[in-house]
Amino acid sequence: MKTYLSVFLLLFISSIGFSQKPPKLVESFNYTGQNIEADQVGNLYIINKEELTQLNQKGEELNRYSNKQLGDISFLDISSPLKPLLFYKNLSQIVYLDNRLYPRSEQISLEQLGYPQATLVCSSYMNGLWIFDQVELSITRLDRTGAQTAKVINLNQVLGVELNPNFMYEKYNKLYLNDPKLGIYVFDVYGNFAKKIPLAGLPKFKIDNNLIYFPSNNDLVLYDQVGFTETRLKLPIGKLKDLYLSGNNLWLLTSDGLFHYLYQ
To answer: Which secondary structure element, helix H or strand E, spans residue 16, and what is its range?
Structure first.
């Protein structure tokens, strides 16, 4: 196993030191939910069932969105802060919002597009869209006009496994398809299989450069895709629902609220 770390991971660890000094609590907020995300300009987004709340970097509320007719939000993709994507799995519906969380248009029915068995979606580059079909076991990429630009069917045969993914995300022109039991399968933007990342048991994760990070047993786990190394940092509190890391800033979403910590 290689022992070197990515530049990002080296900078992050050197900034907090190897002393495992706990991060300092900056402020807490009365927000809770299941997921927290952040866009490229630093705004935070919290999903709480059917409601989406947008906060600035100070934790101040900017906007809210909900649609009770569509029910709970299954997935949020904010690869483009000007066009957040909301996926409602139970109804196979997609809603695109603007940067103030106002709907851009009527919701999009995946069934009407010809994908009635879609269980996962995510944004792609140049306003494209990836769709995972559970029956076909396929991944399909559509461009901004709805034209198909890539499709791979029967992933079980391609990968030689019985795939049951729960999460899909494109980052840096790579598609990450997560199976909690098997690990993360990575494809290029044409649907070609690139590699498998041996991180099993993950309900979700986040990506920053070559770094994959996620919570595990009250630890923040940092996995470097280049050096194949793993670093664990103790989290200061429990009851964790989700987290987001930006530089030395750590946001923890728990059942008791939202907490902003700073590694020093």
So the answer is: helix 7-16
